[in-house]
Predict the 3D structure of the following.
Amino acid sequence: MPKKSIASLALALLALPLQAQDLQRGKLLYETHCATCHTERLHGREKTAVKRMADLRDMVARWAPQTRRTFTPDELEEIVQHLNRSHYRLIK
């Protein structure tokens, strides 16, 4: 295996724990700050405005101020990724 491929593989493997942490953080942020008003029925509606990842990002950003917490851009993206994994399953 070429050295470049080994280095790329090593970096990818090192990133896996970080990705898992981000996924868990998104879930925790959502459950802590959003789930009090949102039920499973909200995300499972047949007539949803969320058709693409951009729609989901816009929706999360639009409703984030209702939590009375200031989220960082990374936190908002973690919430988006959590919702995509858990409910929407949109193509990235």
Notes: Residues 3-88 form one domain.
